[in-house]
């Protein structure tokens, strides 16, 4: 008698090893709610027959699914879907990604931004904080909003574009932890670091102006520059980050008045600029009359980060950070600390863009900061990131710079012969999404490396699986991956 199959995977769009394709299809169907907890999967033999594969392949697929925690097998009874954990579908229900600009080398997907759809079964392409902690990190702040109708009434209306004094003060307290003393009056709350960078660059630069950037740059800044008609000028970097002599030369040549840098746990290189380099860059900024825009979004991940640029000369650097990576991306709360003379212009840019930052979200952020829960969430992220870095360093020949032991990402230099784009495509064909290094170059050229986001997948086991696939690819000659014609 033919067994009625409780589940038959659709493998048509899945390439790569069959057993893995079956396990991936199983994960996807569980994610999508098509396979409720407790479902008994078909016997190995029946599924093998239906899919026209060997029984060994199905056995391997079920073993893989068991290893991922998707199913459990009981001798004599069969294989059953386990109670669901948070999976891809839970954390990344898609909003439609914006349309790409067809005239540009970069798309928003390249930015690794958080509004992209999941790219594959193992997505290491988005610099996500560990998702296990996000809901728990937000909950106390959300709960704290309840109840006080007077307070809610105050928050419910339009607010000054520079923010309410108490929210600005909370921002100052948050920033002070990272070695940057701040007063409420120096702070402008913004929607995420991206909102902050947009406001600062709009306040400082006019269309046609030049912005000096590192050789590898967070693509969100490429995006702002493109939208705003700002020219990006690349400044040579070395193992310590942007080179002061190259900065001076580029400033003179281009007439730029602004430079953008990520001095701590740079995305994607992971370089943390040492103290002396920071001091030298400040010296150059003074000599060349430059304003430095300092993005410190990853500073909380560093054990003992050097003092920010803005702490070295508060008149020469505008500091931007957010709670996106330590509390939750969707909180969309960040803070700018700027020289007092620039605060009104930055507030005007916020007003032009969104009128104001949501006071409700700021209230949640303030409660989390003042209760110490934001700091606890940051600690949890740091510890998880460190565990994932250890996994990555065990599985891959990484050459990460000093101080990157708890970074969310790794910057993988490819062996001779690989191009970043062909390696990215090959990894993708094997079910792993990584970010091509080309996304970080303003001119789209190939740095011969890819970025791996280690915290993006929900489970460490999935990370191991993805990195094992990457390690296998690294061991192959690139030619083997090329089509014959
Ligand atoms: C260097 C850098 N800056 C800014 C951002 C955007 O952060 P937010 O979500 O706070 O807007 C990111 C996000 O990955 C980033 O890597």
Automatic annotation (TrEMBL):
Gene3D superfamilies named among the record's database cross-references: Aspartate Aminotransferase, domain 1, Type I PLP-dependent aspartate aminotransferase-like (Major domain), Winged helix-like DNA-binding domain superfamily/Winged helix DNA-binding domain
Keywords annotated in UniProt: Aminotransferase, DNA-binding, Pyridoxal phosphate, Transcription, Transcription regulation, Transferase
Keyword hit for Cell cycle: no
HTH gntR-type domain sequence ranges: 16-84
MF terms in GO: DNA binding; DNA-binding transcription factor activity; pyridoxal phosphate binding; transaminase activity
Secretion signal, residue range per the UniProt entry: none
Pfam families the record matches: Aminotran_1_2, GntR
Family from the record: In the C-terminal section; belongs to the class-I pyridoxal-phosphate-dependent aminotransferase family.
Protein's recorded name: PLP-dependent aminotransferase family protein
Species annotation: Rhodovibrio salinarum
């Amino acid at each position: 008698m033919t067994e009625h199959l409780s589940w038959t995977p659709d493998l048509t769009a899945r390439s790569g090893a069959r057993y893995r394709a079956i396990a991936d299809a199983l994960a996807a169907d569980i994610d999508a709610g098509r396979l409720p907890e407790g479902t008994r999967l078909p016997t190995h033999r029946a599924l093998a027959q239906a899919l026209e594969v060997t029984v060994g392949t199905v056995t391997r697929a079920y073993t893989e699914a068991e290893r991922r925690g998707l199913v459990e097998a009981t001798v004599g009874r069969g294989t059953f879907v386990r109670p669901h954990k948070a999976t891809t579908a839970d954390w990344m229900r898609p909003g439609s990604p914006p349309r790409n600009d067809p005239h540009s080398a970069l798309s928003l997907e390249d930015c690794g931004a958080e509004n992209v759809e999941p790219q594959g079964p193992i997505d290491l392409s988005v610099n996500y904080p560990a998702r296990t902690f996000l809901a728990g990190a937000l909950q106390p702040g959300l709960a704290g909003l309840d109840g006080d109708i007077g307070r809610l009434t105050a928050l419910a209306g339009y607010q000054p574009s520079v923010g309410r004094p108490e929210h600005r003060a909370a921002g100052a307290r948050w920033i002070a932890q990272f070695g940057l003393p701040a007063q409420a009056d120096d702070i402008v709350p913004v929607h995420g670091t991206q909102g902050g960078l947009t406001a600062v660059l709009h306040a400082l630069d006019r269309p046609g102006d030049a912005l000096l950037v590192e050789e590898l740059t967070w693509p969100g800044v490429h995006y702002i520059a493109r939208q705003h008609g700002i020219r990006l000028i690349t400044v040579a970097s070395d193992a310590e980050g942007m080179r002061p002599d190259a900065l001076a030369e580029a400033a003179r040549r281009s007439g730029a008045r602004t430079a953008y840098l990520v001095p701590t746990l740079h995305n994607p290189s992971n370089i943390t600029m040492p103290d002396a380099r920071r001091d030298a860059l400040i010296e150059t900024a003074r000599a060349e009359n430059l304003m430095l825009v300092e993005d410190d979004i990853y500073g909380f991940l560093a054990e003992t980060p050097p003092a920010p640029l803005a702490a070295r000369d508060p008149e020469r650097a505008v500091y931007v950070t957010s709670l996106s990576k330590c509390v939750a991306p969707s909180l969309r709360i960040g803070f700018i600390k700027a020289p007092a003379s620039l605060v009104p212009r930055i507030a005007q840019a916020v007003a032009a863009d969104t009128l104001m930052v949501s006071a409700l979200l700021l209230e949640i952020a303030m409660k989390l900061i003042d209760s110490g829960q934001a700091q606890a969430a940051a600690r949890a992220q740091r510890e998880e990131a460190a565990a994932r870095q250890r996994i990555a360093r065990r599985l891959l020949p990484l050459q990460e710079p000093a101080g990157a032991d708890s970074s969310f990402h790794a910057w993988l230099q490819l062996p001779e012969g690989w191009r970043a784009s062909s390696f990215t495509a090959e990894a993708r064909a094997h079910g792993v999404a990584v970010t091509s290094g080309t996304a970080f170059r303003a001119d789209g050229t190939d740095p011969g490396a890819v970025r791996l986001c280690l915290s993006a997948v929900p489970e460490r086991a999935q990370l191991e699986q993805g990195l094992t696939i990457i390690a296998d690819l690294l061991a192959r000659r690139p030619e083997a991956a090329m089509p014959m014609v």
